[in-house]
Amino acid sequence: MQVRRPSGSVVRVRVAVAGDHAAILALNNSAVPHVNALSADEFAWLSSHANFFRLVEDDAGVLGFAIVLPSGLDYWSDNYKWFAARRDRFLYLDRVVVAERGRRRGVGRALYEALFAFGGGAWPRVTLEVNLRPPNPDAERFHETLGFATLGVREYDGGDSAVLMMERVIST
Asked: Which stretches does DSSP call E strand in 59-170?
């Protein structure tokens, strides 16, 4: 799908394929601490269990990606487990990363629009977490403008780190 952004630039949203994996893993690991680093094996597990794995690209390459997992998996993430203990059916946005050159170009919004279209009518909600400590106020505001609401706060590392646990209802 091609998306013309308000700036006039054109980006493409498409399903990520095996040939994209090296670039996506490198982009993921360059985004620490906003997302956790992944080994090749962890990335392989996530990509093989994702029911939504999309990227945004332009003619120069990958601008961003999103990996989304369905509920019902035996996944190691404590954040995923937090949602699983409270919700029966959900899509879990495990990670979304936008390259520096893709920021403020509508890349993140294009990924979320594609996710909401994918999940609408089939899944009741999208869940995710946003860093509270260390703070990420831009991400918090972005998600609130997209209709995400905070369900709670999950603290870890002895209280040094915390995340806002958020969801958006996409179908009833």
From this structure: 61-70, 91-98, 125-133, 149-156, 161-169
User: Under a CB-based contact definition with an 8 Å cutoff, are residues 126 and 168 in contact?
Assistant: yes
Half-sphere exposure of 156 (CA within 13 A, CB side): 9
- Structure tokens belonging to residue 168: 């958006």
Res 7 pLDDT > 90:
no
Per the listing, tokens 């487990």 go with: 81
Which of the four pLDDT bands, split at 50, 70 and 90, describes residue 1? Answer: low
Q: Residue 156 corresponds to which amino acid? A: Y
- In whole angstroms, give the CA distance from residue 59 to residue 79: 35
3-class SS of residue 21: helix
Other CB atoms within a 10 A radius of the CB of residue 65 amount to: 24
Task: Answer yes or no: are the C-beta atoms of 25 and 41 closer than 8 Å.
Answer: no
Return the beta strands (E) in 41-148 as ranges: 52-58, 61-70, 91-98, 125-133
Neighbours of 3 (CB within 10 A): 17
Instruction: With H, G, I as helix, E, B as strand and everything else as coil, classify residue 143.
Output: helix
